[in-house]
Amino acid sequence: MQFTDSHCHLDDVAFTAQLPQLLAQCQQLAINRIIVPAISPKNFDNVLTLAKTHHNKPINIYPCLGIHPWFLQGLTDIHLEQLTALIAKSKNNIIAIGEIGLDGAIAKNAEAYGQTVEKSWQHQQHFFDYQLNIAKEQNLPVIVHHRQSHDKIMPFLKRYKLENAGIIHGFSGSYQQAMGYIDLGFKLGIGSTITYSRAKKTINAIKRLPLSSLVLETDAPSMPLSKEILNKDELSSIDGNKTNTPANSPINIIKIFNVLAAIREEDSEQIADQLESNIEQIFFNSFRIESSVKS
Ligand SMILES: [Zn+2]
Hints:
There is one protein chain. It contains 13 helices and eight strands. By secondary structure, it is α/β, with parallel strands linked by helices. It has one domain: TIM Barrel, CATH 3.20.20.140. Zinc ion binds next to loops. Zinc ion (ZN) binds near residues 7, 9, 37 and 99.
């Protein structure tokens, strides 16, 4: 069995010191591909450089470029124009636009940032719309962040009908919401949410969804797994806070996979194979990628 972490912020400083060891661990666990979304203009270069350094190494690292709704403060159309130019220049290297999206909690807290709720939505929607447009023009998939925003995201995705769709990252929600995205060609990023037994609605949805619509992700170093599934050593390193261990790491893909396999009816091999071919389908099947890999 082979695995891909479809969403990991591997350029985060939390990983810098231990990156070689971490990648060696990934290799041992057959986590052979890590997809790294960008979050703001501040990390574009880091993400591109990280991926370049690891191109065709045992672990392939694939970069994405995009601006996350959490990091829009102070950003204007100038930044979107710069992003457009950088994407055009990096077209043969990046595999998606991301992470982009809409976040209802950010909008609700807008006053803390000196904005109204309405202005925050407008700002977020402008950036989301603009970046979907880049994806359409460049024929790239998107990696979509959602939080309290399914109803606002859906009309955008319906309008753009992206050919390569993309991933609804860190999916949590109902079966109906999931099927809405799947009908538009999207895959759902399955991460630490399913390790929390309280996430009943999401777990029940993932149990019933077509296997062809799921991919694995950690979102590391964010989104720690539930303590319910960690072993004693892992728990003591978190509770004691003795080490500088990041709260989450790409090696947790295996734990998430095991939880998914326990939820699903299919056998583990079949699940792992299908998850990998889902990744192939979104990111590596088009002529664009084949030609870029050769060049
Ligand atoms: Zn993320």
